[in-house]
């Protein structure tokens, strides 16, 4: 099949070779022919043929992320304004700015936006800052005092609202339960007109009982304690046995053995004797 | 049975019986009883033993009378307890051969260093005696050489003693003589290992540089005590505690006596009119002598006319204002130069607007020590302000309202449209809707 294709194209090929490269040797001719053949196989469209409307097809668009600068240099901003949205840190927060969780730069003061570099802080980073005066330039001189604003207003101090003792229905908000030999309990009026102690106060009562709910903080500590206790017991028993032996209390102490163990020992002894 | 056995038998039985009658725990119990008795007697009568009168082995319960008598307990409590049961054998008699060999090597090294010091001292004497014209490089070169030689002598002095275990022990017991270079060297090394770093961190994180001074590198250890309690650098101190002036413990690490100025400065005084912060001087004293050996510097004791310029003002913070940074600055004066305290009194009597930078430049001082604490509004502040006539206890600061840049939006929706009197018949549906409106009108923003 391929052979036939080549044989059909041969006159055309020869002509093309003669026009473009008169000096090429005949050995190069064959590859060029192969290229042309490939183009035909892939279906290249010539300019003489009209396109069939594919250019009208829209590209598949996703939802835009709307990244980039949201405020330009010298623009007035208030705290919380978004200055720059980005993926990663193309820009860093400078004077009076902070960076959000998704690297968005926010203003933290009322003022004017400045885009700048600060080689003293970092050689490569670009910063966004907010200054109080539009004429100021960033970065500020390194050892100059920081420019700060109080951002507070003075008010007369609020008087604390007096707490009423009796509810509108004429019964007290709080009563104290006094019981001999027990700590006093403060009961408070609830929405359903019952008197009940606060839950957190009930919780505090545990401390007054002197109960110890947990002797050991961790499981490991408990096991270690048990091990040491057993060791102490064994050591004490040994010492007691020794003392008893010293005081001559009835010569050798016969160790209490279960019947089963005695039988086993006898059997073993019998075997050894054989 | 032999005769002697027969004689001895009742005796043995008697002995055995005695032993068998007594249960084996009784001995231990009796010992415990005796111990208890001893304890009760010692605790009830509080009779200090001779070991308790010795600062090297005093127990915690007998520390206070000893301190009152002017003898500070030595070392840690744990070590003191250990010393009670061990004999303090001098190093020469310790029976460890390798230890004694090592001591011999260290002693030889010390001899070498001492010889070197002598050599350098001879060189210094020769150079001093020489005429500057005969030295190559003239007067300047002679001075440089002398300074270099003296520096090397100081280094050798430290190197001569640095391997001496007794010197190290004395330093760790707090018995070192700070007039000697080796103890100052040890003290500085200890300070640099932690406290200096802490102070440097506070200077950085609280923006003392650049807010108060453009540059500050402490050279002396300054510790702060309020009511005998040590205050960590940067801690928030209750206004009742800081009502009385603190005591400082200042340790300088270079030899000799010098005069210092002491400034306590509040760097965060709110200035509501200008929407800014200003500074205030809380204490100013000058011409305070300091040397490595006297470390205690109680501010309440500085009263002399040629020292105290601005007396202590209790640090207070108004309600709602951000925390105040109270910096304690120690500035070294030029050697042999006394400041004119009367002039200082005139200059800084107003306290407000005090600039440490200009004070430093005007009197040619160098900052050498720093410590700080903080003050906030607390339950005692109002009383302290009333007692000392400080105004401002009746006002509070609230955050300034920041208004949105967006224009107001008219309320939208069916209800919003039908608020007017034309819809009077619908008001029962369109007014007083929870979250939207009340009797006074439309409340929902935007």
From TrEMBL, chain A:
<feature type="compositionally biased region" description="Basic and acidic residues">
    <location>
        <begin position="233"/>
        <end position="246"/>
    </location>
</feature>
<dbReference type="Pfam" id="PF01016">
    <property type="entry name" value="Ribosomal_L27"/>
</dbReference>
<keyword id="KW-0689">Ribosomal protein</keyword>
<dbReference type="GO" id="GO:0005762">
    <property type="term" value="C:mitochondrial large ribosomal subunit"/>
</dbReference>
<feature type="compositionally biased region" description="Basic residues">
    <location>
        <begin position="257"/>
        <end position="274"/>
    </location>
</feature>
<comment type="similarity">
    <text>Belongs to the bacterial ribosomal protein bL27 family.</text>
</comment>
<dbReference type="GO" id="GO:0006412">
    <property type="term" value="P:translation"/>
</dbReference>
<keyword id="KW-0687">Ribonucleoprotein</keyword>
<feature type="region of interest" description="Disordered">
    <location>
        <begin position="233"/>
        <end position="274"/>
    </location>
</feature>
<keyword id="KW-0496">Mitochondrion</keyword>
<dbReference type="InterPro" id="IPR001684">
    <property type="entry name" value="Ribosomal_bL27"/>
</dbReference>
<protein>
    <recommendedName>
        <fullName>Large ribosomal subunit protein bL27m</fullName>
    </recommendedName>
</protein>
<dbReference type="GO" id="GO:0003735">
    <property type="term" value="F:structural constituent of ribosome"/>
</dbReference>
From TrEMBL, chain B:
<dbReference type="InterPro" id="IPR008914">
    <property type="entry name" value="PEBP"/>
</dbReference>
<dbReference type="Pfam" id="PF01161">
    <property type="entry name" value="PBP"/>
</dbReference>
<dbReference type="GO" id="GO:0005840">
    <property type="term" value="C:ribosome"/>
</dbReference>
<protein>
    <recommendedName>
        <fullName>Large ribosomal subunit protein mL38</fullName>
    </recommendedName>
</protein>
<keyword id="KW-0496">Mitochondrion</keyword>
<dbReference type="GO" id="GO:0005739">
    <property type="term" value="C:mitochondrion"/>
</dbReference>
<comment type="similarity">
    <text>Belongs to the phosphatidylethanolamine-binding protein family. Mitochondrion-specific ribosomal protein mL38 subfamily.</text>
</comment>
<dbReference type="InterPro" id="IPR036610">
    <property type="entry name" value="PEBP-like_sf"/>
</dbReference>
<keyword id="KW-0689">Ribosomal protein</keyword>
<dbReference type="InterPro" id="IPR035810">
    <property type="entry name" value="PEBP_euk"/>
</dbReference>
<feature type="compositionally biased region" description="Low complexity">
    <location>
        <begin position="35"/>
        <end position="50"/>
    </location>
</feature>
<feature type="region of interest" description="Disordered">
    <location>
        <begin position="30"/>
        <end position="57"/>
    </location>
</feature>
<keyword id="KW-0687">Ribonucleoprotein</keyword>
<comment type="function">
    <text>Component of the mitochondrial ribosome (mitoribosome), a dedicated translation machinery responsible for the synthesis of mitochondrial genome-encoded proteins, including at least some of the essential transmembrane subunits of the mitochondrial respiratory chain. The mitoribosomes are attached to the mitochondrial inner membrane and translation products are cotranslationally integrated into the membrane.</text>
</comment>
